[in-house]
Structure formats: C-alpha cells, structure tokens
Amino acid sequence: MRQDKILEILYPYIPAQVLGDYLGLTVSQVYNRTYKRGIKKDPKIKKEINRSLILNAGKHTRFEKGNKSWNEGKKCPNLLLTNAAKTMFKPGNKPHNTKEDNAMSIRKDTSGRLYYYSKLADSKWVLTHRLMWEQANGPIPAKHIVRFIDGNTMNLQISNLECIPMSENANRNTLHRFPDDLKKLIRLKAKLNKTIKNKQNGEK
C-alpha cells in the first residue's frame, strides 16, 4: 500500500503526528502500522523528539513570565476562612505543649548521651551545664568547653563542672584508650612540659 511505503520511508525521520495528519491516520494507527512492520525511528531523530517532548511537556499549562495570577491582590474568600477558623492559631496563641521560660528538658546528642537543656525563650534552648557555668563564672572563653568532671552528664552540681580548652579536652579523650599506668605517665609528661615552658617564659 502507498501509505505503508510512505511510512517506511518517512517514519524514521518524521514525527508520528505529522505523518498521521498527512496520511489521514491517527497517531495510534501510525504507531500500530510501523510496529507491525518493524519500522523504527532513527536513533538521532528519536533523541531529538524525546528532548522536544520533555521541553514542551505541559507548555500550554505553564505560568509564563509576566503573566498575572487570577487571584492577585484578592483576599481569601470568607467561606474558606469560616471552616478553618476553629483550628487556626490566633496571634499570641501557643500550642498546648509549649513549655514556659526557664523550663528544662533532657535530650540525646548524636552519640546518644543525655544532656539537660534550659529554655531561655520560645525556640531558644541552651545546654544547662553551660548556662550554669556562665552564671557562676562569666562567659565561656572562645575555644573552650564545659566538662563534667565525673563524666556523668546528669550531675549538674557546679562543683562537677570545669571549663577547659578544646585541645585539652581532645587530649583527655585520647587518654581513655590507654591503660591506667600509661595514662599517668602521659599526664606526668604533659605536666613536666608545661612546667618547663612556664620557666622558659619567665626567664625571657
């Protein structure tokens, strides 16, 4: 048939819709006839057609730049607000589970250790042991942390808190991996080095 011959020659390079309009066939008929006869699109043409389909998908429903929304400047209809009003938060309202200022909470850090947190204001919580240290001793210096002397993060006694440089904290954490006798030796060496350094600075 003449149509089949045209399909065989043109289908690999022409979109099915264009061929269908020319031959008086629907797109489905074009696909069915070419499928039965094993006629396929040229790979390069197929790639371009697919790319065009992706770029133009939903083009007629897109919101073009410069267009204005139909409801621009309009307020939400009262009918919609009526049903939602009962569940809306009013200005100043707070959820039923909102905690008051100065409230405390216990949370886990990424390692699973528990810490106390204190609320200073809405959406503002701080670590309680850091807050206690600052209230007793003033601001925490830069690159310093507040540690629990006994290692118990639930023991908030001020006597159980110490403020040390982050570098010293790293050294202490490293020591935990060694046997007790080796730990003592490392501490003694660090203390000796510090004493020597202090004397050298004094002589200068």
Report on the architecture of this protein.
There is one protein chain. The chain is an alpha+beta fold. Among the domains are: 2-55, no CATH class; 104-173, no CATH class. Helix content is 45%, strand content 13%. The chain is built from 8 helices and 5 strands; from the N terminus they run αααααβββαββαα. The chain has helices spanning 2-10, 16-23, 27-36, 43-56, 78-84, 128-137, 166-175, 180-203; strands spanning 104-108, 114-121, 124-127, 144-148, 161-165. It has a 3-stranded antiparallel β-sheet with strand order 1-2-3. Strands 4-5 form a two-stranded antiparallel ribbon. A hairpin with a 2-residue loop joins strand 2 (114-121) and strand 3. Helix 2 (16-23) packs across helix 3. The longest helix is centred in the last third of the chain and has 24 residues, at 180-203. The radius of gyration is 37 Å and the shape is elongated. The mean pLDDT is 78.
Which keywords apply here?
204 residues; alpha+beta; two-stranded antiparallel sheet; 8 helices
Note the main sheet.
3 strands, antiparallel
> Count of helices?
8
How many whole angstroms does the radius of gyration measure? 37 Å
**End-to-end CA span:** 107 Å
SSE string, helix = H, strand = E?
Answer: HHHHHEEEHEEHH
